[in-house]
């Protein structure tokens, strides 16, 4: 039995619902840590605002086909989408490249970016810079040898 006292500003039911939502928002950060370590990825959990994580996918205004694919896969929140890689999303039945592109565009329209995708993009850019620097060094040393 749970006894809830309020000052009357909210009902006891509303108070417990808000408290439960707060707990869910705080604990979701830890919910995928086992799956990350089991997969052996080096992705660190990235903080995402609880409001963004809990946003229903209906707010993205997706096409019926894309929405139905996500619903059949039991994906109902933006945070659940952001935790999935593109490859995982493409494994969903009838969810193809067109659906993936639409989903990414709708997320971008809402100002929601995938923190994992950003991390991969940043590391890819750094790798390309390193390759360019290495190539420039090789070009310089070849020119010196020719002279």
Description:
By secondary structure, the protein is mostly helical. Among the domains are: 48-113, Orthogonal Bundle (DNA polymerase, domain 1); 114-147. It contains 8 helices and no strands. Residues 39-45 and 118-142 have low confidence and may be disordered.
Question: How is the main sheet built?
Answer: none
Outline the low-pLDDT stretches.
39-45, 118-142
Can you identify the CATH superfamily of the domain at 48-113? 5' to 3' exonuclease, C-terminal subdomain
CATH architecture assignment name of the domain at 48-113: Orthogonal Bundle
Proportion of helical residues:
55-70%
Strand content: under 5%
List the topology elements.
Blueprint: H1 12-31, H2 33-39, H3 50-54, H4 64-72, H5 78-82, H6 86-90, H7 97-109, H8 115-146
Spell out the key features of this protein.
0% strand, 8 helices, 65% helix, 147 residues, mainly alpha, DNA polymerase, domain 1
Structure in a nutshell:
65% of the residues lie in helices and 0% in strands.
